[in-house]
Amino acid sequence: MDSAAITVLLKQHFALDPQTAKILVVGLGNTGVSVAHYLHSLGFKFAIVDSRDKPPMMADFFQQMPDTPVFTGGFDEDAFQVATHLVVSPGVSLNERAIIKAIANGSKIVSDIDLFACSVNAPIVAISGSNGKSTVTTMLGEMVKAAGIKVGIGGNLGTPALDLLKLNAQLYVLELSSFQLERTSALNAVAATVLNISADHLDRHVDLAEYAREKQRIFRGDGVMIINADDPVVYAMQDKDRKIFTFSINKKADFHLAFKESTEYLMHDESCLMPLAELPLEGRHNAANALAALALGRVVGLDEPVMCNALRKFRGLDHRMQRVAEIRGITWVNDSKATNIGACIAALQGYSRKVILIAGGDGKGADMNELVPVIKEKAKSVVLIGKDAALIKQALNDCVPVYSADNMAQAVRVAADIADAGDSVLLSPACASLDQYKNYQDRGDKFTKAVLTLVDGAASPKAAALVLPSVAAI
Known about the structure:
Helix content: 25-40%
Shape: globular
Number of strands: 20
Number of domains: 3
CATH topology of the largest domain: UDP-N-acetylmuramoyl-L-alanine:D-glutamate ligase
Strand order of the largest sheet: 7-8-6-9-10-11
Radius of gyration: 23 Å
Low-confidence stretches: 458-474
């Protein structure tokens, strides 16, 4: 779409006129920088504000756009009061005082996803949910590539949506968070899904109901709804006037699991697509992810054999049920991306044998009691780290043996000490990582490094973990 056509749509949807709009971009991170380049390319006037004194991307940004006004070190309310439009990065809460006052004074909220939706002719597939959205986004992206279609993949995952425009793709696959969706109104995806709903980001959302409502915004428009029949909150989001595909790992649905002559298959209606055993990912929750991806791919016209071949080659994403090593009969699995309770529950439910669980971090206000039933059923023992370890310990109330560790290296040593051959040790924290690590990737990397250190020693993992002066059972 050319610049003139985009400008017309922005005027229609948001009263965004390059001649009169005064836009304030809130946040100088990846999203904010992508917005700045987009606005500059269309000739809009804008400024940037960031609460940090020295945003990490500021030096590079000044080299690229030295004449752009940038305010740092807090949210200057004067900058907000002159703005006709605010483009607020997902990492910034809309409940900031300066933002609330600006909205009350007439400033309009526009998201980067809104700007993207007004700038593409190609269809958009939108994917959200508490857990699995990065996996499904990447799965579907690989399917589209295998079909020979030029695809742009990003949003909350990897490349910011506006940076995908330069690809001029035939199809866009976007992962979208609740923070992106709560400020988005122009998206009309050809196919959309909320994979599941579980307690997450309750430090930003009032309650689970509000969180679910923000997720449901992904279904605005008239595209096909992909609905998880196993999740009652998602199932209730159906619009009976829309075309719907359902998926389930527990019951009959449009895309589901079923046994045929003692082999379990991924199914579309009554058609066997591929044996579940050929899906090279751990955990039954990844079967649900695969079914969701197949449903989305069906909507955009992908051939089912092509999609299944892509699934057979899909090895998963880093830090998402990623097998790190098998050391003397003990399997070590990195699921650091499990930053909320629902993700941890899904990971544990994928095991038929009890595992040793490493968990903990910043619980983000979630109710740790929700972990108790699945840990009691699926965990042999638990090793806790991080800010909210005591809250998890209190919730578990000695239903399984619980140990504590000061850091990831110690946690791995404790797990090695208590594990037997045939056991799996699963890092699935159920918490955010920022209390101790840069991000969940850093946390997962620390886990991997600690596990691989066990290989370096001549002693067995148990011997390597015998002396733990700063670690105690609790």
